[in-house]
């Protein structure tokens, strides 16, 4: 067992792309934790999709052996945390398992919205914080400017900050020394009854559920029986070990250590993050638990080919095994047939799950308009949570509707501030604060989540040429004048396109929607009216004129194989369409029609 004084547990907090994963790689490499030949970029990002998009989704852990300049051997446990706003809850919970943080700031960029959000999680968890200014190899690097910002905006001392290039390796030794010198050692009592924190869990197809634990007191050994306090279940521990970063068995884990256990647990849902683990016959005071992550964005997923519904069910079941924050229930839509109504932590989470279903399970999907949860209060005094605009009751029975609001923090260079304020105003935002740090403005807005879930982030990036950063947290539910807007194509309601909108914006939205649909729906042999309506009242209308589309007309030369190729291509195109009454609507219409270009 390792002496407490020779353990350091830490995480790295940073804004996306500021170099957190690269720094972690460099720390791993320079301590020979991984043999040179096995080193690949971004060791800790294990999922395919993470590697492709270059973002960290799941928190990961690695144990590093480091011999400090004083000649003593230390064990450093790094818990890597995701940087994207959808996964903020993972950041806050993994912070509770460690005592310190490296705050990585890109010295060519400065403090960004998620730098702030993430460092506040670290401060909340009482961490000692070492600032690390990265990318000093780049000409635009300005370490003293960033130091000033860290002191002004975050309010922490930057005098001990380390200038680093995770790319060239400069400053890496200083970083390792600072971890040992400035971050506190964990505390704990080896003779007390076992008390461990369940930090994270995930599903492995060979080993079942793997549980990441932080030992607070006592010792954990292989073969022991442990109890999870939240659900009072007993498990027989069949493996314990640490991550180097591959799983490496150990004999025991003591106070301050971070490692894993497996115990033939079948589903991630049987483990609760933040739970307290002890021995079967022991009693300990439970640790303060974490809030379970709540889905906030809902949408329907339907197979394009309705014969694949059972395959979709299987895919969703499998994905849910490994992701307790993702919820789903069966849904049937008049237009789309059978599918699932799914809940996600945010839009990135939605995209990740959708991509995985399409890619790993080879099922083409129709994704309906993302929606938030509304509180609907009826005239008879009852109320319920509305997850799907299609379930909206007749407005005459509704007393009022409340929607979720968020607190959004946006950091942006001065010259783009006007555009940002306009965008927030357009999305029904209420300005709460506007401050400056050097040539950067920080705007705090109260915004309806509904106006943000769809394409706010894309718009923000495009109006600021990518310079703005954005972070949000849920605030409260408030009443507003909200209505359901339905869309009718050829007089048939297309429930998958219905959405909740603010009454004052319904006409503009409706008009934009029908104009878009007119471009997205191919012409048919007959005239097709496209309408947006509130209740029985049509608020916008377009008509798609009739046309006979002869795809082979271009092939005047009598080349039969060319003709057949074209017809085949058209047939393949058909597969991506859905029939609504007599009208074929292409799959991409469902998403494109909802994107609002201002
Ligand atoms: N020039 C230079 N580039 C760097 C340095 N550190 C990281 N980068 C580059 O910056 C980009 C982002 O680095 P990542 O390590 O993926 O950033 P991250 O913060 O882990 O991003 P997420 O995992 O998505 O949160 C990559 O293209 C890196 O190669 C550095 O010190 N110098």
From TrEMBL:
GO cellular component: plasma membrane
Membrane topology: Peripheral membrane protein
Reaction(s) the record says it catalyses: GTP + H2O = GDP + phosphate + H(+)
Keyword Protein biosynthesis: yes
PROSITE patterns from the UniProt entry: G_TR_1, G_TR_2
Annotated Pfam families: EFG_C, GTP_EFTU, GTP_EFTU_D2, LepA_C
Family membership noted in the UniProt record: Belongs to the GTP-binding elongation factor family. LepA subfamily. Belongs to the TRAFAC class translation factor GTPase superfamily. Classic translation factor GTPase family. LepA subfamily.
The protein's name in its UniProt record: Elongation factor 4
Organism phylogeny: Bacteria, Pseudomonadati, Pseudomonadota, Alphaproteobacteria, Rhodobacterales
């Amino acid at each position: 067992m390792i002496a407490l004084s020779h353990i350091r547990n830490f995480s790295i907090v940073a804004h996306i792309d500021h170099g957190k994963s690269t720094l972690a790689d460099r720390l791993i490499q320079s301590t020979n934790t991984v043999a040179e030949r096995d080193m690949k970029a971004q060791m800790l990002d294990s999922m395919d999709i993470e590697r492709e998009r270059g973002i960290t989704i799941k928190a990961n852990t690695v144990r590093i052996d480091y011999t400090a300049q004083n000649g003593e051997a230390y064990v450093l446990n790094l818990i890597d945390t995701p940087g994207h706003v959808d996964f903020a809850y993972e950041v806050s919970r993994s912070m509770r398992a460690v005592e310190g943080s490296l705050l990585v700031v890109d010295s060519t960029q400065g403090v960004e919205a998620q730098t702030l959000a993430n460092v506040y999680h670290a401060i909340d968890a009482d961490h000692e914080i070492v600032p690390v200014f990265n990318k000093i190899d780049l000409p635009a690097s300005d370490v003293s400017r960033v130091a000033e910002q860290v002191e002004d905006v975050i309010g922490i001392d930057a005098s001990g900050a380390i200038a680093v290039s995770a790319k060239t390796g400069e400053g890496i030794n200083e970083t390792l020394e600072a971890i040992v010198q400035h971050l506190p050692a964990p505390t704990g009592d080896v003779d007390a009854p076992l008390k461990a924190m369940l930090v994270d869990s995930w599903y492995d197809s060979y080993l079942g559920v793997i549980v990441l634990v932080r030992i607070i007191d006592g010792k954990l050994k292989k073969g022991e029986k442990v109890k999870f306090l939240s659900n009072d279940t007993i498990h027989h521990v069949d493996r314990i070990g640490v991550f180097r970063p591959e799983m490496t068995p150990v004999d025991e884990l003591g106070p301050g250590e971070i490692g894993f256990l497996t115990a033939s647990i079948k589903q991630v849902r049987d483990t609760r993050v933040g739970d307290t683990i002890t021995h079967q016959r022991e009693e300990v005071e439970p640790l303060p638990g974490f809030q379970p992550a709540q889905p906030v964005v809902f949408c329907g997923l339907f197979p394009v080919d309705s014969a694949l519904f059972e395959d979709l069910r299987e895919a969703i079941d499998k994905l849910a095994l490994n992701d307790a924050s993702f919820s789903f229930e069966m849904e049937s839509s008049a237009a789309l047939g059978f599918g699932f109504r799914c809940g996600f932590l945010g839009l990135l989470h939605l995209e990740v799950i959708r991509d995985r279903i399409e890619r790993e399970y080879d099922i083409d999907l129709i994704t309906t308009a993302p929606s938030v949860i509304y509180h609907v209060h009826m005239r008879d005094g009852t109320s319920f949570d509305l997850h799907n605009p299609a379930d909206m009751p007749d407005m005459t029975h509704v007393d009022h509707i409340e929607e979720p609001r968020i607190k959004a923090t946006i950091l942006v260079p001065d010259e783009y501030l006007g555009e940002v304020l306009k965008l927030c105003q357009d999305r029904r935002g209420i300005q709460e604060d506007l401050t400056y740090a050097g040539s950067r403005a920080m705007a705090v807005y109260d915004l309806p989540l509904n106006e943000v879930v769809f394409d706010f982030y894309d718009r923000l990036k495009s109006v600021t040429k990518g310079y703005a950063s954005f972070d949000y947290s849920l605030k409260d539910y408030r009443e507003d004048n909200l209505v359901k807007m339905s869309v009718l194509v050829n007089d048939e309601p297309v429930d998958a396109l219905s959405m909740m909108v603010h009454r004052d914006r319904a006409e503009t939205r409706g008009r934009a929607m029908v104009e878009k649909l007119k471009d997205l729906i191919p012409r048919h042999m007959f005239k097709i009216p496209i309408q947006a309506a509130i209740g029985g009242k049509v608020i916008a209308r377009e008509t798609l004129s009739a046309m006979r589309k002869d795809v082979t007309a271009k092939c005047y030369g009598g080349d039969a194989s060319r003709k057949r190729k074209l017809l085949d291509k058209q047939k393949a195109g058909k597969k991506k369409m859905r029939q609504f009454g007599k009208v074929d609507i292409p799959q991409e219409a469902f998403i494109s029609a909802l994107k609002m270009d201002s």
